Amino acid sequence: MAEQVIIERLGAKADGIAETDGGHVFVPYTLPGETVEIEREDSRGRLLRVAQESPEREMPFCPYFGECGGCATQHMREDFYRAWKRDTLVKTLQHARIDTPIEAMIDAHGEGRRRVTLHVRFPEGVMQVGYMAARSHHVVTIDHCPIAVPALKHHAPIVARAIGEHLKAGRKPLDIQVTATLSGLDVDIRGHGPMKDKDRLRLVDLAADLDLARLSLHGDIVVERRPPAIMMGRASVIPPPGSFLQATERGEQAMAALVVEACARAKRVADLFSGCGPFALRLAERSEVHAVETDKGSVASLDKAARMTQGLRRVTVEARDLFRRPLLTPELNAFDAVVIDPPRAGAEAQARQIAASKVPLVVSISCDAATFARDAAILISSGYQLERIVPVDQFKYSSHLEVVGVLRKSGKKPSAR
Ligand SMILES: C[S@@+](CC[C@H](N)C(=O)[O-])C[C@H]1O[C@@H](n2cnc3c(N)ncnc32)[C@H](O)[C@@H]1O
């Protein structure tokens, strides 16, 4: 049954929140001040109609917005969106008792997302290709994605559909990751399971028909027609299939520029959770770098890129699980700066080791404000001062945000607040 509610505020995931007699209800794609009609299920509401619109509402530019689970904020005017996103960061940091002023948010969408994952499903035997709907296993069929880079925008769904057609006999649910590189599309197929040699050979032909740079199955390369290269500073890197890559080129450049600026005077830098080296390879233009990362393929790519690039300072690499075996305090003390960019879970064990070290400078990068705040608080309680915090918006149109923090050891432990 339809119900009318008034939206009071936005939650951290961009859903509108209404207070009702039956408790609060989260309604996606709504704005504070709006009166909306919803269909309610427990604490979630499905928007049926906006009865009274907020002046901050704008027409979404994507025809799939509201159905596809990829974007959450296209209905917000730009200024309102920027203020809301920044404010969610302010609140998270305040909650952790961090009161360093936050700098202006950098818009790092640039040309768009350079990687998309399309899903191929066969409900009732009919192939569907697209993105997942929000909070559902249902695929929303798409023929373009306006927030992807031009090379992917229309072409990634075409590629995914062709692969789905090619592999449809098995009716297996497939996840097809498509990355735009300098030499063409790099495609990794997940969900198919092992494949017989004759079927792999047919995939080689398909990769040629689609003019892919590389095609892999569960990270195992089926064919590399051209090395899928990405420039990281002066270095040309060939990331292993499916390895981590920052969402946008502009985002990677913006974060790397902040890292390089902060470490300008450091002779020796440790780059922890280094991935394929977007920070390490740029830092090595001025400093010696030791890069540490758990994924052996990424470490090997970084190492090869460093050795093939002329004029870099010494780069050493280490494959190491930093959750189980963080760099220990005596190891850390060999560095003038530590750069740390962990996954969403943060790096609590590593932060405790840094906290006990003499490293004078830490640059902390995170895509999760809560774990960023938790780990920064550990460093602050041991004498680091948070000098700057810069939000970098490379996940535009979503609720996610990157944060870059610069912390310097002051020598004195802070008194209790
Ligand atoms: C947010 S990404 C950052 C990568 C890189 N700094 C970049 O900008 O591309 C986090 C990285 O941490 C790595 N990682 C995840 N768990 C790890 C662990 N336990 N120990 C070390 N590295 C880990 C991932 O493989 C990934 O490359």
What are the defining features of this structure?
417 residues, S-adenosyl-L-methionine, alpha/beta, 4Fe-4S, Rossmann fold, seven-stranded mixed β-sheet, 10 helices, OB fold (Dihydrolipoamide Acetyltransferase, E2P), binds S-adenosylmethionine
Q: What portion of residues belong to β-strands?
A: 25-35%
From the alpha carbons, calculate the radius of gyration and give it in angstroms.
Answer: 23 Å
Number of domains: 3
Which structural class matches the secondary elements?
A: alpha/beta
Strand numbers in spatial order across the main sheet: 7-22-23-21-20-17-18-19
Low-confidence stretches: none
Distance between the termini: 51 Å
Percent in helix: 10-25%
CATH architecture of the largest domain: 3-Layer(aba) Sandwich
Mean pLDDT: 95
Principal-axes shape call: flat
The count of strands amounts to: 23
Can you identify the CATH superfamily of the largest domain? Vaccinia Virus protein VP39
Query: How would a crystallographer describe the biggest sheet?
Result: 8 strands, mixed
The unique ligands bound to this protein are: S-adenosylmethionine
Q: What is the class of the largest domain in the CATH system? A: Alpha Beta
Enumerate how many helices there are, as a single number: 10
Protein name: Class I SAM-dependent RNA methyltransferase
Active site: 367 (nucleophile)
Family: Belongs to the class I-like SAM-binding methyltransferase superfamily. RNA M5U methyltransferase family.
Keywords: 4Fe-4S, Iron, Iron-sulfur, Metal-binding, Methyltransferase, S-adenosyl-L-methionine, Transferase
